[in-house]
């Protein structure tokens, strides 16, 4: 069976996901066959594997860093919030239904056999498993039923590195407070603490680190610098949403709806030096972009109502009438149609019918069975301003409860308004380039002025950049001793 090590955090967004990804890359570089694992993930950013199973994107990123194919066993339980008090529950890549938080907490121990089967199966195939926790192990109201932090560590006998975020301040209180709230047997599992996202001179930290070691009773396993690797974020805590509003040669606005999902669909546009990708929540922020993107959402109806009430729907329709390119992905595509029907109240949005934005024809009907599939092919039959994309190859994946008429076509559109169910359709460099070339031609701007890049090579380099930073920050000799049970 594989050896293991677990990354737990003092809170959400302490950097567990990227630190685990960096460790996966380091172990791969050092010649080990390594796989990531997270028993339970709560996120709206998800991915469909080759066999049609749904899993969280954080483990997809970690698998890519490890140089292996994403596998649903790496994330056996995925929770996708549908309301403030409920989530769609996905086990082994398949939807189990929507559950209120109380219902899920009553049932989640029933999923332990699924978690262990997934973990044990991976452990038979790999040398090392890098496990990621969720939130904090010191949530004392949740500890009795925990299956993702110390509860999981006990089940698979994993040593733990505890990570705190110094960028937010209070890292010493984060780390010591977390250790202090743990039970004695849980504290014994922590083999080191890590200060993450550090900017500045490490020497200034030295007195505090010495005192922290004395208080926690374990060594400081590293001080990892704030890393600027361009790697997909997991969820709505991403710093991308707070990016500045500076407009560049080509300006693209993404409508940041409250239940936004799979926003990483738009990451390819960020990697052009002179393209701005802005996330907007108000009409005043929209301004006059060259393209408007409507993202996926976990609740199409509720987020369409939000767009309507905020005035953004009217602003988008006005921009479309003036010729602005509008493109919706998945839920965003559904919003652009004439009607949305939810006769079985799949979305639990309080209505079974709502008018769409009427920028595209057709209606969407929500069904209880989710479409989950990877897809690839060649774009055909596109009319209007994006007709130049015809003949280009695409690949991606679909995750949706709704059916929107002729969904067999990868891109539906007319004039300057388009929609697609395919997440990742912009990842193909030729498609991204094709869209930007059309926008450049419209503004009489040379496409070369945007700057281009090798997408696959670029992504791979980012994992190496992350690994370099993590290797430099961690005491890797100590990490290997922890993995080998020598500490």
Give your account of this protein's structure:
There is one protein chain. The chain is an alpha/beta fold and 487 residues long. Helices cover 31% and strands 27% of the residues. The strands form 6 sheets. Strands 2-9-1-10-11-12 form a 6-stranded parallel β-sheet, sandwiched between helices. The protein has a 6-stranded mixed β-sheet with strand order 15-13-16-18-24-23. The radius of gyration is 23 Å and the shape is globular. The two termini are 19 Å apart.
Largest sheet: 6 strands, parallel
What is the oligomeric state here? single chain
How many beta strands in the DSSP annotation? 24
Cα(first) to Cα(last) distance is: 19 Å
Question: How much helicity do the residues have?
Answer: 25-40%
For the biggest β-sheet, the strand order reads 2-9-1-10-11-12
User: What is the C-alpha radius of gyration, as a whole number of Å?
Assistant: 23 Å
* Alpha-beta content class: alpha/beta
Count the DSSP helices: 16
From the spread of the alpha carbons, the general shape counts as globular
Keywords:
single chain, alpha/beta
Question: What's the quick description here?
Answer:
The chain is an alpha/beta fold and 487 residues long. The chain contains 16 helices and 24 strands.
In terms of topology, how is this protein built?
Elements: E1 3-9, H1 16-29, E2 34-37, E3 40-42, E4 46-48, E5 54-56, H2 57-66, E6 77-83, E7 86-91, E8 94-100, H3 101-107, H4 112-123, E9 128-132, H5 150-156, E10 160-165, H6 171-180, H7 184-187, E11 190-198, H8 206-216, E12 220-225, E13 250-255, E14 260-261, H9 267-270, E15 275-280, H10 283-286, E16 291-294, E17 296-297, H11 300-310, H12 312-321, E18 325-329, H13 331-336, E19 339-341, E20 353-355, E21 363-378, E22 393-403, E23 412-414, E24 417-420, H14 429-443, H15 455-473, H16 476-483
Parallel strand pairs: 1-9, 1-10, 2-9, 3-6, 10-11, 11-12, 13-15, 13-16, 16-18, 18-24, 19-21
Antiparallel strand pairs: 4-5, 6-7, 7-8, 14-17, 19-20, 21-22, 23-24
Helix pairs in contact: 1-2, 1-15, 6-8
């Amino acid at each position: 069976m594989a050896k293991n090590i677990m990354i737990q955090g003092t809170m959400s967004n302490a950097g567990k996901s990227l630190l685990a990804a960096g460790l996966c890359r380091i172990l791969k570089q050092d010649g080990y066959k390594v796989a990531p694992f997270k028993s339970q993930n709560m996120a709206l950013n998800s991915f469909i594997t080759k066999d049609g199973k749904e899993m969280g994107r954080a483990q997809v990123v970690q698998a890519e860093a490890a140089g292996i194919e994403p596998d649903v066993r790496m994330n056996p339980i995925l929770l996708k919030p549908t309301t403030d008090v409920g989530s769609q529950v996905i086990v082994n890549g398949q939807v189990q239904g929507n559950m209120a938080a109380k219902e899920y907490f009553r049932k989640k121990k029933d999923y332990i056999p699924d978690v262990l089967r997934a973990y044990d199966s991976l452990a038979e195939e790999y040398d090392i498993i890098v496990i990621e926790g969720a939130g904090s192990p010191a949530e004392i109201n949740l500890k009795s039923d925990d299956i993702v932090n110390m509860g999981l560590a006990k089940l698979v006998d994993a040593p733990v590195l505890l990570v705190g975020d110094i960028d937010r301040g209070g890292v010493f209180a984060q780390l010591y407070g977390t250790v202090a709230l743990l039970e004695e047997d849980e504290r014994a599992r922590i083999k080191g603490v890590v200060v993450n996202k550090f900017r500045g001179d490490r020497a200034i930290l030295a007195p505090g680190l010495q005192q922290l070691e004395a208080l926690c009773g374990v060594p400081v396993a590293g001080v990892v610098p704030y890393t600027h690797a361009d790697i997909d974020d997991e969820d709505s805590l991403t710093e991308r949403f707070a990016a500045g509003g500076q407009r560049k040669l080509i300006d693209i606005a993404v409508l940041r709806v409250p239940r936004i999902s799979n926003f990483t669909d738009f990451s390819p546009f960020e990697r052009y030096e002179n393209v701005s990708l802005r996330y907007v929540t108000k009409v005043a922020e929209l301004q006059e972009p060259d393209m408007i993107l409507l993202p996926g959402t976990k609740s199409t109806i509720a987020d369409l109502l939000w767009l309507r009430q905020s005035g953004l729907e009217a602003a988008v329709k006005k921009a479309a009438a003036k010729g602005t390119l509008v493109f919706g992905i998945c839920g965003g595509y559904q919003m652009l149609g004439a009607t949305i029907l939810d006769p079985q109240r799949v979305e639990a949005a309080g209505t079974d019918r709502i008018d769409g934005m009427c920028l595209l024809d057709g209606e969407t009907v929500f069904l209880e069975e989710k479409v989950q599939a990877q897809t690839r092919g060649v774009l055909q039959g596109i009319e209007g301003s994006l007709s130049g994309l015809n003949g280009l190859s695409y690949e991606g994946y679909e995750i949706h409860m709704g059916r929107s008429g002729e969904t067999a076509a990868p891109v539906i559109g007319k004039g300057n308004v388009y929609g697609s169910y395919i997440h990742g359709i912009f990842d193909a460099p030729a498609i991204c380039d094709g869209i930007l070339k059309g926008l450049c031609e419209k503004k009489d701007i040379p496409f070369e002025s945007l700057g281009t890049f090798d997408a696959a090579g670029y992504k791979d380099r980012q994992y190496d950049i992350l690994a370099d930073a993590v290797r430099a920050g961690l005491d890797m000799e100590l990490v290997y001793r922890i993995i080998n049970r020598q500490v």
